[in-house]
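We now fix the convention by which a protein and its fold are recorded. Here is one such record, which you should read through line by line:

>
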Amino acid sequence: MADIRPFCGVHYDPSLVKDLAKVLCPPYDVITPQMQQELYKRSDSNFVRIEFGRELPSDKNTDNRYTRAAATLEKWLGKGVLTVDKKPSIYVADHHFTHRGKKYRRRSINCLVKLEEWDKMIVRPHEGTQSRPKGDRISLLWALKADTSPIMGLYDGYAKQMSSLLDKQTAGKPILSADNGNEESYRLWAVTGEEAIRQISDFLADRPLYIADGHHRYESALTYRRERRATSSTLAEQEPFDFVMMTLVDFTDPGLVILPSHRLVRGLSPSALDGLMAGLKTCFDVEEISLNKNDTLSQINKLLSGDKDEVKLILYGLSQERFLLLRLRDFNIVGPMIPYFHSELYQRLDVSIVDHVILEELLGLTHDNVRAFLDYTNDAIEAIGSVAEKEYQLAVIVNPVKPGVIKAIADSGDRMPRKSTYFYPKTPAGLVFYRFGK
């Protein structure tokens, strides 16, 4: 099904860049303005200058963040800061990290995947997107002719022979290592043997791939490919830009951590807040619970645990001392509030009920204006704190989505509401990337 290929990766030269942790950066979509400034200061060679460079007041068509990224890429290649591997490789990466005091290792396979339109169901999305980030990534593709940060994908069907093969390929010294000193480290190995590459490619080709993180990047790559082919009649049937770099993780990998995406709301009128409780009671059994300020996270986790088929949410903001535990009373009450064309699985998701029932139906936020009122966080304590500090009016706390649900939604051809999942931690940009042209 999927066409998997090795590639000659571009990465920092460890003989010149001694501390790799100082030059890696997060993917563009989580880089805040403050983080961007800190990354610029961290190292003159920090990858943020390519992945998500500064915008300047003097920017114009011939001098902007994209042209500067392209110039920086050429400069670093010329100086040897970045090097290009001579042999096509499939790269195996181990990402070690700590979450809530527990240590994890997430293993991924970094390779090229042939771009396929969604309707072929070879590569399957699970979440909706918005247009603005795609425009940014398309501009960067035109300027760099490179995939700077990998799309995180998932595959189903962990096999013992695959596990032992990857263990064998990672037995030697990695080509790159980084430790950021914050309980997070990376190791990267290059698999160059033809037989090992064939075995990995054949294993992955037998199953569909699921976009976990990077829907915008995949859709941008599809759009870029269409634009390139529309502007030239002399292209070969298969060009380097027909492939995109992905980092693939097994659904059952013990290091696959998916965090919830809690909703934060602001800008509501007093009348909207005044009528919210009555509206909630038409759909939910509502229980007011005193906030345990000494151990709020444990309290939230305990309240939201239980029957996986029961929809339970926590809403905070109508009182500073208490929050509301919401139990969906009857799906038949809220079903008509959710667009009929979505699958039943979509309609029963916590985030679907929050977005369509609470935000749209009860608070009157429309699909067109909801973005002006809504933010997201994967940290429940941060959500509660930001409401307590009056930065937001409401926080809606949800359970994380399970990997099996992601697969089922994608297999049905549906997509979850945008910002339904947060894969933790993000795969860094700059560890290895794919340059498909000059």
